[in-house]
Amino acid sequence: MSKPLPTRAEIVACFKGQKRGMNPREIRSRCQVPAESFDRLIELLDQLCADGTLQTSGGHRYRVAKKPRGQSTELWEGRLGVNPRGFGFVTAVGHEDVYIPAHAIGAAFHGDLVSVSISSRSARGAEGSIAEIVERRSPRVAGVLCKRRKSAWLEPDDARVRGPITVIAGVGGNDGDAAVVSITRFPETADENAEGEVVAVLGRPGDANAEVAKILVREQIEEEHPPEALREAEAMAAKLAKLPLGKRKDLREVPFLTIDPVDARDHDDAVYAEKLADGFRVWIAIADVSEYVQAGTALDQEALSRGCTIYLPDRAIPMLPGALAADLCSLLPDTERYCMAVVADLDKKGKVKRFEVVEGLMVAAAMVSYGGVARALGFSDKPRPSRLAERFKKELKVLDDVSRKLRRSRFARGALGFDLPEPQLVLDEKTGAALDVKRRAEDPGVKRTYEIVEELMILANELVAQWMSKKRCPAIYRVHGKPKEEKLERLGEIAHILSAPFDLDEMSDPLGLSRWLKEIEDHKGRFVLEMMLLRSMNQAAYEIANIGHFGLASDAYLHFTSPIRRYPDLIVHRAIKRLLRGEKPDTSASAVERLRAAATQASTRERAAMQVEREVMDLYRALLMRDRIGEFCEGVVTALVGGGMFVVLDDPFVDVFVRFESMGPDRYELSDDEFSVVGTRSGDSISLGDRVTVEIEDVAVLRRTVYARRVVHSTDEVAKPVLPAISAPRRGRKTVAGKSTRRPALGKASLSRVSGGSSRSTVARGSSPTASKSRTGKKNTTKKSKISKAGPAARRRK
Q1: In the CATH scheme, what is the homologous superfamily, with its name and number, of domain 75-135?
Q2: pLDDT tens-digit map of 186-236
Q3: Dihedral sign of CA atoms 660, 663, 665, 670 in order
């Protein structure tokens, strides 16, 4: 392998002190480039001329290009994101995103840490070129292995990664296999291919395990924690085997309860409330993860790089090693644990009168499940009775009373509440294959129990945000900006089409939108309207500037309650402890910049996690529908795009795409307002919210897309908008709740746009789906499987 070429910065530096230009041989000599790399050096010099870094002069000499007067020479550092069409953007911490034209990317790869030179600014933003590749992205790339005689290469699945990648070692597997390559030599010019070695052969494309593995590689997600992080976790376990009280507040006499799904593995919050003569006193205790994960350690660096726990249909990929997440940091019953706690006094209406934030030592009195609590409090007779929940029935009633008051108060100020259906995946117990995807028919009683914990977590997050803001301590806030007016205008047009009330003047604040959601509760088009409102919303994110949280109608909000599963919570805990111990907030520019970088990283990793969760759910849906080609299904039109329409089926709960050519015996086009598609000859119109019948036509597993054709009968009339029917659970099928995400066909939005975190998709393992008829008239049957609990439970990210 030849010696690497000098970086762009090194080439520019070699001109320092030169009054005249240099020819290529002089540059080769000064940069110590071997003779065999001379041609590649010429290519690099030509690229530097093309992007304006160098310029040529007489005698085939090069010199550093002079910047036009007034042009910026500043360099920003950030991650390069490449668009499949060739151009890219660099996300620089503390700056606007910088547009990079395709010709200015050079040898950089998607995901590289780069230094970018700003060349111009316009109303559309900053534009620049890659000045230097500071750090290469993860070398692992997933794709399809191609073999031709003695040659082998990998075609990356990720269209953002430039390919092909020449395979020079470790050539196992067969032509067409899904594989992972580790890049051993990145290209040094734009025209070169990367080189690498095969490190894993995953099987044939389309296999569930192979596809999930490729998704994780693409998003640079490792399931196993590095050895150094695991060693540190073990060392902390030994060091903190005994927990001295020290200067912490002794909370061991408070009978805290942890309320979680029955199969939850980590328990990072516990609650208790007591009734007072003039109101209530509430304790909210959160696991003190910061005591175990010290800043700057390998554990900390790994948690930062992961950002959050990822929930897949059959397992979870934790942010922290299991020894911490499921044991040492988990608030297990009858076990002493360090915690961070909020203690608040509320009046009889649930308004906070006073509160304090403390470091504590606690012992959870009991661990109860949502179903057990619902049964004990008489909210539902469906879950199994729980003796433990019955034992703490009095305490649970007080907690419910407090949460009802908090919830009423929150919605009265304008908090938004969505009630969109969530998918529930049924998996085969033995094979892990998808058996069904349906709408989760959530027990209202169990849902109310979830709300007990939800309201108390929101209260704690708000109070800590207020406390840190008052102390002028830099923090990572969870922010959610108000929707743009043009998007609300668009929503109003859709409401008009669906004959729903809508007053744009009242939609500029949360209270107005909250009232509107209440107005359309019983409207037949509520499903589409709520989904379109979600599309109109900004995505919640982590920022150091507190702009409030629109969806929660909160002036100050942050994440404090889930440090086992979210990195920003861990940073907040560390800041709280410094304040409680008398240290002044670090407001230096360097400290603020580090905090800003951590916030950006947290938002980036959260989006990656959501993308993985959504795509894996879509993968399972596609695999399920592969065996249902030819079936007829009904659904509702949820999105119209240039190539066709998305339809959400009633049962199974799957998104399908109907291309224009599959809509009927006519030529269909998108209307000018983009709210309907119209047949150019017949005038047949299909609008958002219309119910349609479709036949499953094809499945593209690698694209995670199910294709269907619209079934048209001669007597058909244009369907009227109506809320899709919600399928009741089929008799004989048991399901176990797990985790939920939003669906791409519903605007590729997540409920995290307006909540403290992402929603959960529900995963269950159970019996096979009821046999259904295909167009051949034959029944499609699947052998029944035993019912078992879902894999690692995916608790709500509060």
Answers
A1: Nucleic acid-binding proteins (2.40.50.140)
A2: 998 888 899 999 999 998 888 899 999 999 988 889 999 999 999 999 998
A3: negative
